[in-house]
Design goal:
InterPro entries: Cyt_b561_bac/Ni-Hgenase (IPR011577), Di-haem_cyt_TM (IPR016174), Hydrogenase_cytochrome (IPR051542). The chain is mostly helical and 230 residues long. It has one domain: Transmembrane di-heme cytochromes, Chain C (Fumarate Reductase Cytochrome B subunit, Up-down Bundle). It has helices spanning 9-13, 23-44, 48-71, 78-81, 85-93, 108-136, 147-182, 187-192, 209-229, and strands at residues 16-19, 194-197. Strands 1-2 form a two-stranded antiparallel sheet.
């Protein structure tokens, strides 16, 4: 069956649940949602100590996702879902076409959205760490960075936050569009990890949980070092 063709009753019956999203990937997704919302709330309430702690936690989480994207499960690896810009554009041309969902992982456009969100969260957390150390006069770089660069980092932190919120809104809009226009439920698989796929679509290979725990420990240590020395 090709994308764009209707699903026959036989093909529908041939579908079986497949674990496409592992636990580390799902935890990253939902913890990132909670932490970004927490960062926004603490910023609005001027709870800056909590805001900083949330930022440091989010940085560790993003660093983990970068490592998991290199060494983790098949659907989490960047090389497996990062399509060319031309492929993403071709996919978006048919975004309103109702068709069968045969994708075990991210679609070509979704992969670019994932990378954009990760890049924005990384830039926001790193610039936030520098700003916190600059205000508290704690970081070893605060005395060596020229004022113009420090001001640029401050402006970047504000700009990236606005862009991040816009990207999150676009992400939510895309989820709703895919549900209504294409009949694809992108939310449920990220909750359960499973998607019903034809037998012709192979189940993705999953990385061991021990590797995820090791990479998380490495990421937490790296975030702590950056918080100290940035």
């Amino acid at each position: 069956m090709k994308a764009g063709e209707p699903i026959s009753p036989l093909e529908q019956a041939d579908r079986r649940p497949v674990l496409v999203w592992d636990v580390p990937t799902r935890l990253f997704h939902w913890l990132a949602v909670v932490l970004v919302a927490g960062a926004y709330a603490t910023w609005r309430l001027n709870w800056m100590d909590w805001h900083v702690r949330i930022g440091e936690t989010l940085l560790a989480l993003v660093l983990f996702r970068l490592l998991w994207g290199c060494f983790g499960s098949e659907t989490a690896r960047f090389r497996n879902f990062m399509a060319s810009p031309a492929a993403a554009i071709r996919h978006l041309r048919h975004v309103l076409r109702r068709e069968a969902d045969l994708q075990a992982g991210h679609n070509p456009a979704g992969g670019w959205m994932v990378m954009l969100l990760i890049a924005l969260m990384l830039g926001e957390t790193l610039s936030g760490l520098y700003l916190n150390n600059d205000i508290a006069d704690e970081g070893p770089l605060t005395q060596w960075v020229p004022a113009a660069i420090a001001n640029a980092i401050s402006a970047l932190h504000s700009i990236l936050w606005d862009v991040l919120l816009a990207a999150v809104a676009l992400h939510l809009l895309a989820i709703a569009l895919y549900a209504v226009a294409k009949g694809h439920n992108l939310l449920l698989p990220m909750l359960t990890g499973r998607k019903r796929l034809p037998a012709s679509v192979a189940a993705p290979r999953l990385a061991p949980a021990a590797l995820a725990l090791f990479l998380l420990a490495v990421s937490a240590a790296a975030a702590a070092l950056l918080a100290t020395y940035l």
